[in-house]
Amino acid sequence: MKILIVEDDNDLREITTRSLEKERYVVSQAPDYMTALRKIEDYDYDCILLDIMLPDGNGLDLLGELRALGKRTNVIILSAKDSLEDKVKGLDLGADDYLPKPYHLAELHARLKSLFRRNTREGEHTIRYGNIELVPDLFKVLIGGKEVELNRKEYDILSYFMLRPGRLVNKNTLAESVWGDHIDQVDNFDFIYAQIKNLRRHLKEAGATPELKAVYGIGYKFVIE
After folding, report:
1. Can you give the pLDDT at residue 189?
2. Long-range Cβ pairs for the range 94-97 (8 Å, 24+)
3. 125-172: per-residue pLDDT in tens?
4. What are the pLDDT digits (tens) for 55-114?
5. How many domains does the chain divide into?
6. Secondary structure of residue 32 in the 3-state scheme
7. Can the peptide bond before residue 55 be classed as cis, meaning omega within 30 degrees of 0?
8. Above 80 in pLDDT, residue 124?
9. PTM 4-aspartylphosphate: at which residues (predicted)?
10. Domain shared by 65 and 174, yes or no
11. What is the CATH number of the domain that holds 193?
């Protein structure tokens, strides 16, 4: 999962980033309103952790910009400004949750997991497609009921497609979602091709019914023939 932290407190932003990365999230940062605005215009995120009081703007205005762009990104407001008015306004603008500062990182992790389960898996703790089952909280993959070992990026790629079965995914979008912002500036995508080749081999050897199909010149699609 790819997360953007919009927070002007450098220490809090770094601590939260390190904690999320330990949980295997892909994390990007924005220390102010304008940086955050450029990022939400250029990239897509699974969730934005949004501070209200920014040095050059109001986080609630950024939430409005996000919705104006037509992006349905999950948003959790993180703010010391714990007034009922701001909380209600944020939720009315489409925020999914509100966590006042100071917050415990364990609670933030729990809320993120709950949010993703609710919005992407209908509250289920596992993701299933064909004979593949993912247990995201444990980073476990089962194919035909048997556990299959994948490296971190192979797992992340599989998880991305398991949440989007049958959907054509552009290789640039895949790269940004699994490796992070600015990955589109690299010279080539050989590192992606290598990971996908290995993932395909693991799936085939384990007898997976879904296949990761290449669509020439565009990207990939995860389908059951």
Report:
1. 74
2. 94/63, 94/66, 94/67, 95/50, 95/63
3. 789 999 999 998 889 999 999 999 999 999 999 999 999 999 999 988
4. 999 999 998 898 889 888 999 998 876 677 777 888 888 899 998 888 999 999 999 988
5. 2
6. coil
7. no
8. no
9. 51
10. no
11. 1.10.10.10
Q: What is the H or E stretch that residue 78 is in?
A: strand 74-79
Are both 138 and 114 inside the same structural domain?
Answer: no
H or E, element range at 124: none
- Of 12, 22, 23, nearest to 116 by C-alpha is 23
- Looking at 120, 143, 158, which one is the last position of a domain? 120
CB atoms closer than 10 angstroms to residue 65: 16
> pLDDT digit string (tens) for 162-219?
999 999 999 888 888 888 887 766 667 788 889 999 999 999 999 999 999 999 888 9
Count of beta carbons in the 10 Å neighbourhood of residue 85: 8
pLDDT for 192: 85
Residue 14: both structure tokens together? 């770094």
Is 219 in the same domain as 177?
yes
Regarding whether 54 and 18 lie in a shared domain, the answer is yes
Q: Do 115 and 145 sit in the same domain of this protein?
A: no
Domain final position from 65, 98, 120: 120
Is residue 55 located within the same domain as residue 160? no
CATH of the domain at 8: 3.40.50.2300
Token pair of 167 as six digits: 């959907």
Size (the chain), residues: 225
What domain range is 185 assigned to? 127-224
What CA–CA distance (Å, rounded) separates 18 from 46? 18
